[in-house]
């Protein structure tokens, strides 16, 4: 049984079909890429898996159990977390506070405890702070823990968003264009960091990425979307030589033999 299964997912926005009958299976401990031209429906697919959109048709299974219809926070509690194509940090809060937000789903303090600032709440808050700082050390940004998130360089904001996602203690992390806007050196560093997440933390990773060098060098399996439909799947080598994929990216003329 696959760790995550998306079966026949369809999402419509009025007359626009953003995803149609998309089926994807993700094995535990793998790095999988979802690729396709702009407008192919990749982020819509991520949004359905993580509860930001509810599929009009189809289902999403985690460990064989449906998570369709659950809120994003409920899905995060079950072990699926994500980052975003456009970084979504609390920019006025410190970097450390941003990571602490990720621990929220695992805290047990109730409303009364928070109102009266009980000893239990204070102790839990301190544990969350220590854990958040350790995660920042792990991703290499502990030196900016007390700086406002919005003031950080772009590359550090990307790592901060990943640290916040890790604070939910996930099984699966979805990375939406993690190398977008990075220079070649930063892209290489991000590639190695993603490998580290798999090998050291045992995470299952699904990524959307337009950098084909990164995709082909990092992914073990690839699913390709075009106009909301899945047109191919396979290993990087199989995808590299797939005529449907070549046509989707380069046009039909690229597949014709003169």
TrEMBL record:
Q: Does the keyword Metal-binding apply?
A: no
Q: Which UniProt keywords apply?
A: ATP-binding, Nucleotide-binding, Transport
Every ABC transporter domain range: 4-252
As one GO molecular function, the record gives: L-valine transmembrane transporter activity
- What is one GO biological process annotated to this record? L-alanine transport
Q: Which InterPro entries match?
A: AAA+_ATPase, ABC_AA/LPS_Transport, ABC_transporter-like_ATP-bd, BCA_ABC_TP_C, P-loop_NTPase
Which is one Gene Ontology cellular component term of this protein? plasma membrane
Lineage, top-rank taxon, reads: Bacteria
PANTHER family for this protein: AMINO ACID ABC TRANSPORTER ATP-BINDING PROTEIN, CONSERVED COMPONENT OF ABC TRANSPORTER FOR NATURAL AMINO ACIDS-RELATED
Q: What is this protein called?
A: Branched-chain amino acid ABC transporter ATP-binding protein
């Amino acid at each position: 049984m696959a760790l995550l299964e998306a079966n026949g997912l369809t999402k419509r926005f009025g007359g626009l079909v953003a995803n149609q009958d998309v089926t994807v299976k993700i094995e535990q401990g793998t790095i999988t890429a979802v690729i396709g031209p702009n407008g192919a429906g990749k982020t819509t697919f991520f949004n359905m898996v993580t509860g930001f959109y509810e599929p009009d048709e189809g289902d999403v299974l985690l460990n064989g159990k449906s998570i369709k219809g659950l809120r994003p926070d409920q899905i995060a509690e079950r072990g699926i977390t994500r980052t975003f194509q456009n970084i979504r940090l609390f920019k006025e809060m410190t970097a450390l506070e941003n990571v602490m937000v990720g621990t929220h789903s695992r805290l047990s303090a109730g409303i009364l405890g928070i109102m009266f600032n009980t000893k239990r709440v204070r102790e839990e808050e301190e544990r969350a702070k220590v854990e958040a700082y350790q995660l920042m050390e792990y991703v290499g940004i502990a030196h900016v823990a007390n700086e406002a998130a919005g003031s950080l360089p772009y590359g550090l904001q990307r790592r901060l968003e990943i640290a916040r996602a890790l604070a939910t203690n996930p099984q699966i992390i979805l990375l939406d264009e993690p190398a977008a806007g990075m220079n070649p050196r930063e892209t290489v560093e991000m590639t190695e960091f993603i490998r580290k997440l798999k090998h050291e933390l045992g995470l299952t990773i699904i990524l959307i990425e337009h950098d084909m060098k990164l995709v082909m060098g990092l992914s073990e399996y690839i699913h390709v979307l075009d106009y909301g439909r899945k047109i191919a799947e396979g290993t990087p080598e199989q995808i590299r030589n797939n005529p449907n994929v070549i046509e989707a990216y380069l046009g039909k003329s690229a597949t014709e033999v003169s």
